[in-house]
């Protein structure tokens, strides 16, 4: 029997890389999906059984093609971590309709298409996990989040709909609301005055995400918030 397969959509030096490492550590064959394979390819080369795939999360055809390739090369997906979540920042007067749509396509449409690609196999198996990485913006529309907040709100609503629909089939769908600044080299450069405990550590977030996928079905979590202890909320 081969390794279980985990797909991580949205790979960067912070959370995406940490998710890939954590699931590989637990014995998964990990598929790393991102626009280009420059970074994801490097990460995959350090993880046993991992592969990187080019995939634009805003393009349904690209998502479908990538997931088909994953199924052929690694096998049916048992865990999906949807980490794609880019967005344009600006007020309603500053952003364009194209900006608004682009944010929705990555956060909501991409999740919808990716979920459709993994649901059939998970239903056949009678189990599976879909973990969506959300944001506090899904709950409140900041002045400069005119594109990002509505997209994250749509993503959250879709995730809840998936959870209600798929739970009876044994598929655990959960949302992780990330509240805080992720500890990446770029963030450290931008905020050199902040202490270590100001930042959310990607490896710690990855531990929380993996824990969701290991929960017994009698006590599933739908929504989990992660933030550093000093974050104001």
TrEMBL record:
The record ties this protein, via InterPro entries, to: NAD(P)-bd_dom_sf, SDR_fam
Q: Name one Pfam family in it.
A: adh_short
Transmembrane spans: none
Q: What PANTHER family is this protein classified in?
A: OXIDOREDUCTASE, SHORT CHAIN DEHYDROGENASE/REDUCTASE FAMILY (AFU_ORTHOLOGUE AFUA_5G14000), OXIDOREDUCTASE, SHORT CHAIN DEHYDROGENASE_REDUCTASE FAMILY (AFU_ORTHOLOGUE AFUA_5G14000)
What is this protein's record name? SDR family NAD(P)-dependent oxidoreductase
